[in-house]
Design brief:
Cofactor: [4Fe-4S] cluster
InterPro entries: Aldolase_TIM, BATS_dom, FeFe-hyd_mat_HydG, rSAM, rSAM_sf, ThiH/NoCL/HydG-like
Strand content: 5-15%
Distance between the termini: 43 Å
Keywords: 4Fe-4S, Iron, Iron-sulfur, Metal-binding, S-adenosyl-L-methionine
Structural class: alpha/beta
Bound molecules: S-adenosylmethionine, iron/sulfur cluster
Organism: Ancylomarina longa
Radius of gyration: 21 Å
CATH topology of the largest domain: TIM Barrel
Protein name: [FeFe] hydrogenase H-cluster radical SAM maturase HydG
Number of helices: 21
Length: about 475
Amino acid sequence: MKMIYKPQEYRIKDERMKPFIDESEIWEILNNTQVSADNVRAIIKKSLAKNRLSLQETAVLLKAEDPELIEEIKAGARTLKEKVYGDRIVIFAPLYIGNKCVNNCTYCGFRASNKKQHRITLSDEQIKMEVKALEDTGQKRLILVYGEHPMYDADFIADSVRSVYKVKSANGEIRRVNINAAPLDVEGYKKVKEAGIGTYQIFQETYHREAYAKYHISGKKKDFNWRLTGLDRAQEALIDDVGIGALFGLYDWKYEVLGLLRHVNHFEACYNVGPHTISFPRVKAASDSNIDEKYEVSDEDFVRLVAILRLAVPYTGLILTAREPQELREEVIRLGVSQIDAGTNIQLGGYSEDSAKKQDLEMEQFEIGDTRSLAEVIDELIEKQYLPSFCTACYRKGRTGEHFMEFSVPGFIKRYCAQNAILTLAEYLEDYATSEVKEKGYQLIDVKIKELKDIQKIDDLLDRLKLVKAGERDLYF
Ligand code: SAM
Ligand code: SF4
């Protein structure tokens, strides 16, 4: 089979900052790919050996329609998840800072023409109240979210990041702030980098120009190429930790999976490292939204697409959000998700107002499917023997932009990720859990420590665990 995945080849073609999506290339691959059971199995095997898949190999998985083969693809993804990521799940929460917006994305409740939306921009004081409320539940990692508006420029974003880091509560502080905002220019990215951000996330929404034009009818976001090259400018500003995504439901889902993969290839060709994370939100109900149902992605196809993404990019983090309902989240997590949000409330000011369970679409961007509290999600994860992690160590130790180290450096996961997950879970159990969850959590930690018993410095971990129990905080490797 002809290999399409060749970063070297893309390096010649994809000069930095140049739009690199070619619709006909993607459709040609999708249309010309033949599927056979042997081929599907060989490709799953290649992925299980932790190899990246080419666009063409991924197309084979996308085009496999035989239910038996689909089950094999899902089983492959589950195995890969266990093999590569183990049972850690990193936890974060979104914090919406402002919903003013000059764009008109027809699927979004924040769009400029939606007069029903209450427009709110959190003041410094309100940001502090929100962060305090989040810290009081045990959160350590946030993603700040903004509409696109002249008011939310790079200085504003940088100031809000600094405000978040300043809030110290009795039991802790936010240790990592990621961003989901409009694409900036290079100078803008430099300013937000200086404020100490983790990942800068921009979703392309759809990688198909015509569909993009249909859904982005006015405002700066109308410019497909400005958005597509948004994270190249971040790289220019030395932000090497970036997240990409597609909004599923705007165009053909198989095309979008290949679009995401093409974006990964571009990064690998130009910067020698792919994006840190891929997000795959599905369009949800929003105030006054207008979406063509033709491309709606069923639950069944959603599960398939996550499994295929897992197999296509074994080393890229996959983020699943609370847009999806609890049961589906549980199924999809098993297929290879590495990060989820929990305790999510996307209403502006919603965390400190405790509007938790009541959703009001005129106060938020879209409807979420999983409204459980952080405590409920953690309890559930522990019950299912997942290891919830609030780890922020790599970013704080400067181990960024090379997230694949986790997988390429022998023993990295055991040495760092697993131990840091244990230490951050222990902090959570000490500071926020009920006695029942605390007991279950420490039983889980015992099991995980036994799995680590062959690592060199297990005594270091045990010592630090004792210190956490004695009241010390923020210990990490
Ligand atoms: N305003 C910035 C932008 O558009 O890039 C920041 C991010 S926006 C607030 C966050 C993301 O939410 C968008 O990139 C889009 O993918 C997603 N989104 C918007 N409307 C949605 C809807 N109705 N359902 C699900 N996700 C939606
Ligand atoms: Fe504005 Fe972002 Fe919503 Fe588009 S998706 S209307 S840019 S907030």
